[in-house]
Amino acid sequence: MKLEISEILYEHNKWLVDVEEGKLADLSGADLNWADLSGANLSGANLSGANLRDAN
Fold first, then answer.
1. Which of 11, 24, 25, 32 stands 20 to 30 A from 18 (CA)?
2. Beta strands in the chain (DSSP E)
3. pTM
4. What sign does the dihedral 46-50-37-3 (CA atoms) show?
């Protein structure tokens, strides 16, 4: 089952606070075209090969 981007970002934010909690975001190869990423902290996230065209 694929996780929704909001759930992935929620888990990633928990991971940023405490690596024992949450989960590092793996968005490799994801199509994030036009995704609203405003306010998201993607530090350390795997974005290799992700399409971020027109994302904000």
1. 32
2. none
3. 0.86
4. negative
